[in-house]
Automatic annotation (TrEMBL), chain A:
<dbReference type="Pfam" id="PF10400">
    <property type="entry name" value="Vir_act_alpha_C"/>
</dbReference>
<feature type="domain" description="Transcription regulator PadR N-terminal">
    <location>
        <begin position="5"/>
        <end position="78"/>
    </location>
</feature>
<dbReference type="InterPro" id="IPR005149">
    <property type="entry name" value="Tscrpt_reg_PadR_N"/>
</dbReference>
<protein>
    <submittedName>
        <fullName>Transcriptional regulator, PadR family</fullName>
    </submittedName>
</protein>
<dbReference type="InterPro" id="IPR018309">
    <property type="entry name" value="Tscrpt_reg_PadR_C"/>
</dbReference>
<dbReference type="InterPro" id="IPR036390">
    <property type="entry name" value="WH_DNA-bd_sf"/>
</dbReference>
<feature type="domain" description="Transcription regulator PadR C-terminal">
    <location>
        <begin position="91"/>
        <end position="167"/>
    </location>
</feature>
<dbReference type="InterPro" id="IPR036388">
    <property type="entry name" value="WH-like_DNA-bd_sf"/>
</dbReference>
<dbReference type="Pfam" id="PF03551">
    <property type="entry name" value="PadR"/>
</dbReference>
TrEMBL record, chain B:
<feature type="domain" description="ABC transporter">
    <location>
        <begin position="9"/>
        <end position="247"/>
    </location>
</feature>
<keyword id="KW-0547">Nucleotide-binding</keyword>
<dbReference type="GO" id="GO:0022857">
    <property type="term" value="F:transmembrane transporter activity"/>
</dbReference>
<dbReference type="GO" id="GO:0005524">
    <property type="term" value="F:ATP binding"/>
</dbReference>
<dbReference type="InterPro" id="IPR003439">
    <property type="entry name" value="ABC_transporter-like_ATP-bd"/>
</dbReference>
<dbReference type="InterPro" id="IPR027417">
    <property type="entry name" value="P-loop_NTPase"/>
</dbReference>
<keyword id="KW-0067">ATP-binding</keyword>
<dbReference type="InterPro" id="IPR017911">
    <property type="entry name" value="MacB-like_ATP-bd"/>
</dbReference>
<keyword id="KW-0813">Transport</keyword>
Amino acid sequence: MRQSLLALLAKEPAHGYELKQALEQIFGSAYPSPNIGQIYVTLSRLEKDGLVRVVDVEQSNRPNKKVYYLTAAGREALDVWVDEPTEGPRVRDEFFMKLVLAPMTGIADRMALISRQRRHYLALMRDLNELAERTDQGNRVALLLIEGAMMHLQADLDWLERCQEDLS
Amino acid sequence: MSPPPPPIVNTVNLVKIYQNGGVPVPAVRGVDLQVEAGQFVAVMGPSGSGKSTLVHMIGGLDARTSGEIWLDGRRADTLSESAWALLRRQKIGFVFQFFNLVANMTVADNVELPALLAGASPREARERREYLLGELGLADRADAAPAQLAGGEQQRVALARALANRPSLLLADEPTGNLDSRNTRDVLRLLSEVHRDGQTIIMVTHDARVASLADRVVSLLDGEIVDDGAVGPARRRPRATAGDVVELRG
């Protein structure tokens, strides 16, 4: 969440509640939106690290409003984050460990493991299908995220097939 | 009580061995498969595992080497080629990997023809065609010739054609192989709909989105069934959002 708050503040200074609303509006259901407490905790950490600065703005009949600004150091941290490549998904997953280790110890048959895993992936895919149906079709960000999850799942299934071919 | 209806498809120890320059190459090695009316079965497995051969044999497009095929309680593997053709026309819709549309007929005529051959009135055939092409996002392509269509469009026309006469059995071999994700979504929606209305489907597919709609997944490896069972029930997470799913995938 640190980086998304920095990115929003790079656009314009804002107070905590505005940041929460902006995140909700941009990501919709694609990312569960943090509660306001989490946002203030993150902002105060960013402030301690010198990446944002806070200014009290007086309001009549109300407590002061804290408006957050991005500092030069914050801008730099944001640039570093945006410029660096992002890690790809893991391949060395727990299922692969089972697949390699289980037969050695006689715990399970590889084909049975693969078949069970395939059915599990397909059940996950069914969930994603239903989720895509339920999702507001105007919410491009959420739909793209679901599509990305489907593509990863498809790759997992294709790889399962390769394991089945080579290990049988 | 009356006996239960026979399965729509029943294969008994079904075997196919191709001859490759005098060398026998087994493609399907003793498959017993029963499919009940209304079931949607996805057939998965690596390439060369015998999926297409199996489905072609069930549709009578490839002769078996040994074993039996029963369709709707009738022995089918002993039929003559012309009797098979008649049975296919009446009972089976087939979507191939390659679309086999009639080149000198319009899209609309391609789709209506099977319904007309099966005895539907011109009006019924037209309404069914309009419904199917509409569902697949092809309503405005009805008057085009197949050659004017992109590959993904031809593939969807082939699906519409296969469903035109409401066959007892829909056989499909990679019916979404050429589709982008939006077109795949149309196909998924139509398949769910006809399946809900009772359509029996046997479908070879690599596409997990399609397979996940099936009631049952049959996995082949080296010409044999290595797994056959229901796709697990979708977990009930009624309030799940896209974000939760991505967390789920870690």
